[in-house]
Structures are given as C-alpha cells and as structure tokens.
Design a protein that fits this description.
Helix content: under 10%
Distance between the termini: 118 Å
Number of domains: 3
CATH superfamily of the largest domain: Immunoglobulins
Largest sheet: 8 strands, mixed
CATH architecture of the largest domain: Sandwich
Mean pLDDT: 85
Structural class: mainly beta
Shape: rod-shaped
CATH class of the largest domain: Mainly Beta
C-alpha cells in the first residue's frame, strides 16, 4: 500500500509570509506519496483565534462564502498536481487562527497539517468592552477594553475631560482599568486607545456615573434695595447623581414671637425658578438653580431655603438670606420699570 503524507518544514506555506488584513493571501498545501489512481478528498478549515469557532472553508475546489456580499475565497487544484491552494482575496482580520488542510483518500486514510495564520491588522476595539456603567460612591469597578489586532495591541486609558486619573486609586492591568473606592470626582467620560506597530485603532468611550448623595453650594446672602421695582436673584449649585429634585421655600413669621413656618415657592408673578446645566469645565453632575424674586419689597426680606432630594439618599438643604441695601445691587429691572433712580 502506498504511503502518503504532507511535508514541508513549515507545513502549510503562506504567500506572503506575513499577511496583512485587506491583502491577497495564497495558502498552499502539498501532498506527496500518492499514486495517480488514488482519489482524494481535501478539506480546508479554520479555527478562529478570536472566538474559538471552527469553520469549513472549502472542500476540494468548492468554497463556502458564508453569505458574504462579495465572494473572497477560491480553492484551486491542478490536474495530477500534489499542490492544493486556498486563496483569500482579501484577507479579513477575523481569519486569524489555526488553518488546517486535511486529506482523506479512497481507503479513508486521513492526514492533516495545521499552521497558525497570523493576520497583521491595525487594532479595533470590540463591542464586548465595558459600556456606560453606574456604580455607587465608595464602590470599586473594573473597566475592560477588548481590542483585536496583530501584533497584540497596547491599551492606554485616558480621561476625556483631560483631568488626571486619581493617583493611588487607579491601577491598569493589561486591558483592564481598575478603580478603587470611587467618588463623584471619578465621574466622567473614559477613553481607551488601542495601538500596535501597524497603527491606531478606533477609540472606545464610555461614561462612568457614580451615584452619590446631593450636596449644595449657595451664596450665603444677597442684598437688594426694596420698593424700587427691581428684581433680585439668588443661585445655588446642586450636586448629585441621579440628578436631584429641587424645590425652594421661604421662611415666614406667623406673627407670634419665635413662631415661623416655611411656604413652598412656585413660578408665579412673584417668583421665577430656573435650572441650567453648567459647562463641564465648571462642574459635572451639577445643576445651577436660580430663584428670581420679582419687584423686591420689604416683605420679601428674610431666609430662603433650597431643598435637593434624590431617591435612596437623605435630603440636602441650602440657605440664602435676602437683606436690604440702600442702593440697587443687581440691576435687574422688573418688566418695563425704570429700576433704581
């Protein structure tokens, strides 16, 4: 019985030796020791490196294109030739893996050769990377950036707002960024950059949101002249995530000694409540809340309170005192009035 095998010092021969994604690749498999009367059945298969899946690419000269819009595989075998060819045109970055040429003859004898196909490609960050994520204040979290490419990509993490990563509380291990005991300062957009000798891949961005209890920064006091038909406004920066619900109240006297009560403030002809989100350079996860008191009168003087509530956290309060001044401080005129004269 004749003996047959496949031999080459490298097994399957690739042309070119260092194939790149997007280029044409010819893989040759040579079989020796067969007689002209032997019938043989040749199969090409690929065990992909990225997901471990095994695909049959071609059987003899019939190829499987996997419903690709443009056929890119071709299998060739010349008459009475010991050489079989599998042509990738173009080569895809997902073709990296174990490429096998397997032969079965009439007597069901089976031999095969396998060679690892390295596909040189610039990096691309995979969808399996960490997406937008929420954690609580004090938690630890690991951000993952999965990148594909050959040579193996180098991963770099950056903060999109250009603030440095918190020293001592961050550790990068390969493609993972580990953050310990996070706080509101860690909130923001994180970018992962993958690079290798071929080039830079696409960036991957994600938002890290840290849930934390509300807190408030307000002016302590605001002065304005009364009975000049001018307005006054007071402002507070309200921090918290999720964004807190904000309300305003005024302290009033009940007419009895040491007896006071609070009344809720709503938008009306007397009050205007506004909320805006400042630029990220000013603050993150904050709201600028402004209360405007229209046509300030003597009765408007006193203490004003802002309340911030967020589900799962205690409420937070801020206090601003409106006092009387002899002259106008904020030149906000009520509608068509002349203001301070």
């Amino acid at each position: 019985m004749p003996r047959f095998d496949m031999r080459d010092k490298d097994g399957i021969i690739f042309d070119p030796i260092a194939p790149r994604a997007g280029e044409k690749l010819v893989a040759k498999c040579t079989l020796v020791g067969l007689t002209p009367n032997d019938k043989r059945h040749v199969e090409w298969s690929l065990e992909r490196f990225n997901d471990g899946k095994n695909f049959t690419l071609a059987v003899d000269t019939d190829v499987l294109q996997f419903n690709q819009p443009i056929p890119r595989l071709q299998a060739i075998h010349g008459t009475d030739s010991p050489d079989w060819y599998l042509i990738f045109d173009p080569l895809d970055r997902d073709d990296i893996g174990n490429l096998t040429c397997r032969l079965t003859d009439t007597n069901l004898r089976d031999v095969y050769l396998t060679r690892f196909l390295n596909v040189i490609s610039e990096p691309v960050v995979l969808e399996s990377s960490t997406k937008d994520i929420e954690v609580s204040d004090g938690d630890s979290v690991t951000l993952i950036c999965n990148a594909q490419g050959y040579p193996t990509p180098k991963i770099e993490w950056q903060k999109a707002d250009a603030r440095p990563l918190t020293s001592g509380y961050i550790r990068q291990v390969g493609s993972q960024l580990q953050l310990y005991h996070v706080s509101s300062k860690d909130t923001g957009i994180y970018k992962c950059l993958a690079s290798n000798l071929v080039g830079f891949g696409s960036e991957w961005t994600l938002k890290l949101s840290v849930r934390f209890r509300p807190y408030i920064y307000c002016q302590r006091e605001v002065g304005q002249a009364t009975d000049f038909q001018v307005d006054v406004y007071m402002e507070c920066y309200v921090y918290g995530y999720p964004p807190p619900k904000i309300s305003w109240r005024k302290e009033r006297s009940a007419g009895l000694p040491n007896m006071k009560y609070d009344t809720d403030i709503w938008n009306s002809q007397k009050y205007l409540i506004e909320a805006t989100i400042p630029e990220m350079s000013i603050c993150t996860d904050c709201i600028l809340s402004r209360l405007t008191i229209i046509n300030v009168e003597q009765a408007d003087l006193g203490h004003y309170y802002i309340n911030a509530t967020s589900l799962g956290f205690p409420s937070e309060f801020g206090k601003i005192t409106l006092y009387q001044t002899p002259d106008c401080q904020q030149f906000i005129t009520h509608r068509d009035n002349k203001g301070c004269i």
